[in-house]
Amino acid sequence: MTRITEQLAGLQARIRKAAELAGRNNDSVTILAVSKKQPLNAIREALAAGLQDFGENYLQEAVAKMAEIGPEARWHFIGPMQSNKARPIAENFAWVHTVDSRRIAERLSAHRPPDHGELQACIQIRPTNAENRAGIAADEVFELAKLMQDLPRIRLRGLMMMPLPDQAMAGSRREFARTRELLGELVQRGHDVDTLSMGMSADLEAAIMEGSTIVRIGTDLFGPRTQ
After folding, report:
1. Is 51 exposed, middle or buried (0-12, 13-18, 19+ CB in 10 A)?
2. Angstrom distance (rounded) from CA 80 to CA 94
3. Residue 33 contacts by C-beta under 8 Å, 6 or more apart in sequence?
């Protein structure tokens, strides 16, 4: 058993316990392995352990890994989005979690190759009272969602939330709950959305209790980054 296999077993136990407390099936939660700055052998170990979804923040690093790893992995872009990077992101990734503007959404749609299938996308929600953080305010979600619904080659799947890093757990859970409520309102407005990308190593239990379907795990799976 490798270290990553051991770490994964521990994570799966945490997810299973949190899902049971929330009255959910643990199969409703996907582990997104945050592989930024991790070596190729670690990604291959994670694949061998049964993981398929990998999250990257840096475009150039990610594309180089894709060339080495091949189609066995499914790649998610989880870093800040710049409009001038929209083309290579749309061409190489299966998912984007950090859509936060009309301009980004339109560029991703325009540059998605027709033979790649729809680009799965989440709108990133900004933490409350954090104007300098990435994402959009809650009251801007519905306009952007309506726009994305009508764009070709991109499919709005749901919302992503990343609370402030120094926030207490109760505060993080409030942010997760607010995001869950926004997703529910999108459903009420007729959007076909099903994804909440919320929770990392330290707060995955709180996120799962509030409905997270994707938890983004780095250090608790791979260990400390080597770079």
Report:
1. buried
2. 16
3. 43, 46, 51, 53, 54, 55, 217, 218, 221, 222
CB 150 within 8 A of CB 138: no
For residue 4, give the nearest of 217, 213, 227 by alpha carbon: 217
Predicted confidence at residue 227, as pLDDT, reads 56
**Which residue stretches of the chain have pLDDT < 70?**
225-227
Would you tell me how many other CB atoms lie within 10 Å of the CB of residue 62? 24
Q: Show the domains of the chain with their CATH numbers.
A: 28-221 (3.20.20.10)
Three-state DSSP state, 53: strand
Residue 122 DSSP one-character state:
E
Is the pTM here over 0.85, yes or no?
yes
Name the H helices within the chain: 3-21, 40-48, 59-69, 86-92, 102-111, 141-149, 169-188, 204-209, 219-222
Q: Do 74 and 89 form a contact (C-beta atoms < 8 A)? A: no
Q: Are 182 and 198 in contact (CB under 8 A)?
A: no
Q: For the CA atoms of 27, 223, 51, 116, what is the dihedral angle to 10 degrees? A: 110
d(CA 210, CA 196): 9
